[in-house]
Design brief:
Blueprint (H helix, E strand, L loop, with lengths): L9 E3 L4 H4 L9 H10 L22 H17 L3 E3 L5 E7 L4 E10 H5 L3 E2 L6 H14 L1 E2 L3 E5 L3 H10 L6 E4 L5 E7 L2 H14 L2 E5 L1 H17 L11 E8 L5 E8 L7 H8 L3 E7 L3 H4 L6 E6 L2 E7 L14 H10 L14 E5 L3 H10 L4 E4 L5 H9 L9 E3 L8 E4 L1
Parallel strand pairs: 5-10, 7-11
Antiparallel strand pairs: 1-2, 1-19, 3-4, 3-9, 4-11, 6-19, 7-10, 8-9, 12-16, 12-17, 12-18, 13-15, 14-15, 14-17
Helix pairs in contact: 3-5, 5-8
Length: 415
């Protein structure tokens, strides 16, 4: 387990949370982020604008946009949208919806320990996205989006968190999307030491959300180290802002799939081919929510306005292969690649991935836009993610959607 440390930084001013705290970044399209930023000038989203939000005719140069982000951040600090913590702190961060609650600790970990693989990963990153984030770190010089980790829950850690949560939170509000968020501060050095001891007993930590941010922070730290002739190892750039959630509280939603056409097949031909590898059951007039898959190895398919249930024989799935056993891999290897002609989900423009946060209704709406086929998967289990990371393997792109999402504009840590 990496060394979890308190940090000196900023916390959003309680009276400014509704103005400043950004919506879940990944849940918005670039166009939606652009509109939100324009309509909410005090939101932290204005300090994290990206080029893809702008049309070609109105798109600024990258350096110009990053300078705008920096100026917005400086303006927020100057106008006391964030309040500086006087001592190093760990923070308890609770996210709560109608049917789910998760409570984590926000602190920092050494980049060196991330580099040495003490934090386990399950995704590849794209160099071009890392490049942009490195430039963001270098020019804007701040982090407000904690990288999310999970770990095997520890009873003593839980006990400390529960004790603090009996007191009144520093921050307590409900975001626009209905997610209630609360923050408590742990500023006692003795408690910090106890938590570090308990985390040292945990073992592994697993990266859930933020692979690109973590990789970019590592590259940025190396860049700053090379520039700094007085480097000591204690500079802020040597540490990564993280939110740690116990594994028994993590909620994973499915990433569902849509393909715009049947690769030249008729619906009847397509169903006949699928029946060789799957048990295919027509579900008739069930609602989208009723048609949702209820267990692993089961898929729901929307074809020509009709829902079907596909079941694969579990004995044909390689249980000794952490990636091969994933439902999303079964879908790709038995339908997408050989039948629909989709070799790479990341590059094939016929494909779309629909976040599980949009529900079965969102998948239905996407399928209704064109005459294609949609597949709903059962959500991955956290132990499956851990098995992939333990084997030093990677999952297919867009395999998991962690919900609810940690927000930007709550914590602020300058680099």
């Amino acid at each position: 387990m990496p060394t979890v440390r308190p940090f000196k930084g900023y916390l959003v001013a309680p009276e400014r949370v509704h103005d400043v705290v950004a919506p879940a970044y990944d849940a918005l399209t670039p166009a939606q982020r652009h509109s939100y930023a324009e309509e909410h000038p005090e939101s932290y989203v204005n300090a994290m604008r990206s080029l893809d939000e702008f049309t070609e005719s109105g798109r600024p140069a990258l350096e110009e946009l990053l300078e705008r982000n920096k100026k917005k951040l400086e303006d927020l600090i100057a106008r006391q949208a964030f309040l500086k913590t006087n001592t190093p702190c760990l923070f308890i961060y609770r996210l709560k919806t109608d049917d789910h609650e998760q409570v984590g600790l926000v602190g920092e970990i050494p980049i060196d320990e991330y580099d040495r693989g003490i934090v386990k990963k399950h995704e590849h990153t794209q160099t071009n996205l890392e490049d942009r984030l490195v430039r963001y770190n270098d020019i804007v010089g701040a982090s407000s989006s904690p990288v999310c980790l999970t770990y095997a829950h520890h009873l003593q850690v839980d006990a400390i968190v529960d004790e603090y949560m009996q007191t009144s939170p520093l921050i307590d509000f409900v975001a626009e999307d209905g997610v209630a968020q609360s923050i408590w501060c742990i500023d006692d050095p003795d408690v910090h030491k106890r938590l570090q001891q308990y985390f040292a007993e945990v073992g592994e930590a697993y990266l859930t959300d933020g692979h690109h941010r973590a990789a970019a922070a590592s590259r940025f730290a190396q860049l700053r180290k090379e520039r700094n002739s007085d480097h000591t190892g204690e500079e802020a750039y040597n540490y990564l802002l993280v939110a740690l959630f116990p594994d028994d509280q993590i909620r994973i939603l499915a990433y569902n799939r849509y393909v715009k056409d049947l690769n030249g097949l008729s619906a009847g031909e397509f169903l006949e081919i699928l029946s060789k590898d799957f048990t295919v059951e027509c579900l008739g007039g069930l609602s989208p929510e009723q048609a949702a898959p209820s267990r692993p190895r089961e898929f729901s398919m929307l074809l020509a306005d009709m829902w079907y249930r596909l079941k694969v024989d579990p004995e044909t799935v390689p249980e000794d292969d952490p990636v091969g056993t994933l439902d999303i891999t079964v879908l790709h290897e038995r339908i997408f690649n050989p039948v629909l002609g989709v070799a790479d989900l990341r590059t094939d423009e016929r494909c779309d991935s629909i976040a599980g946060a949009l529900g079965m209704e969102g998948l239905t709406e996407r399928c209704g836009e064109e005459d294609g086929v949609a597949f709903a998967c059962h959500p991955m289990l956290i132990h499956q993610l851990m098995a992939v990371a333990d084997a030093n393997l990677v999952m297919p792109p867009k395999s998991t959607w962690f919900d609810p999402k940690v927000r930007s504009g709550l914590f602020l840590r300058l680099r």
